[in-house]
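URGENT: need a sanity check before tomorrow's submission.

F., can you look over the FAD-binding oxidoreductase record below? I want to be sure the sequence and structure line up before it goes out.
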Amino acid sequence: MAEFLVLGAGMVGVSSALALQARGHQVTIVDRTGAGLETSYGNAGMIQVEAAEPYALPRDMVTLFKYAFEISNDVTWTLSGALQMAPALWSYFRHSSLEKHAKISHIHAQLTFRSTADHEPLIRDSESEHLISHCGLVMLHRDENEFEKAAKKAEFLLREYGVTADIFDGKSYQQKEPALKKAPAGAVHYTQSWSCASPGGLTKAYCDLFVKRGGRFVTGDASTLQHGVSGWKILTRDGELTAGQVVVALGPWSPELLKRFGYRIPMVYKRGYHGHFNAPNTLQRPFLDVANGVLAAPMRQGTRVTTGAALVPMKAAKNIKQLERGAAALNEMIDLGQKVDEPQWSGTRPCMPDMLPLVGAAPNHKGLWFHFGHGHQGFTLGPTTSDLLIKAVEGESSPLLEALSPVKRLAR
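Structure tokens as predicted:
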């Protein structure tokens, strides 16, 4: 049995703590706020089995032109953000070649395919079944040609990764989704994914389960982490804590902390926004409005609209133009109703240039473990990659662990 500090109380950090605890380790979670209050709070609430292939950076000139001039609502950017991330973006571009992306996807699919099964016991034990709907995720297409391409893509995902989907023409899907005001060109309904009515609530429920099982949660500042001959220490409201092992699960804040220990970790920071709306009709299932880069999902607070990526510095001022444009477009398809008056949320998805999370031992420090960089899938993959982290801690080896290990990837 070892003593661990887990830095970060998002889905990845809390899942790490639960997995370590289940193996008999003494674990303390340290976070500056509370469980599930930052990036894990504001995502689209999907456990995405269908996300076998991680989001690649487009390489065709037409799409890049649309991104550059923000004709598409999928991506916005600022010059300062692009310059700050330039090395990581260039690496992301290179890893997005057809050949490299295919290899990466065959690794990524091994994670997403088991995601619901890995969440299931935690959902049950935390008594969170009321938050989960096994309703799948719909890709809603307004353009007939794009819908035809999407239908072929669904056939490929079934053939290649075992991802199942139902294909509907627009009128047929409108009958399944009464909230639609008009028929789209068509819809691809990926059936294996689950939806959560409160992502932050589920993360907190997992954390409460961890504490109920004897774990400890304390408020502290990760930036005070120090390494000494006796292990690791950190300052918290409960005083200085020490442990022989530490897991860094701080999502987009991880690279900044690890700079102090000599690690230069390239990362693409994709900011997202959400807003809630008092829609008069509750959606039967979440859907992505593909043409406008926004996902609409039924949540406790109302219909949540979640945006794509804003490539901006971490400390950049909030700019909700993607959310406003996306909501206006959604109103053509569904009646969103009035926007809920609430503090404007934004969060950052921590994307590694090779589109895979870093899971495993730090290259140069004993007792330091990396567990971050999940991109769009931290909520989906927290329990899955935590299981792999345990295997790494226990000295196991496998091709999958090697693919996620920080050692070789940070040396590139």
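My own read: The chain has a mean pLDDT of 96. The CA atoms of residues 38 and 347 lie 7 Å apart. If you see anything odd, call me.
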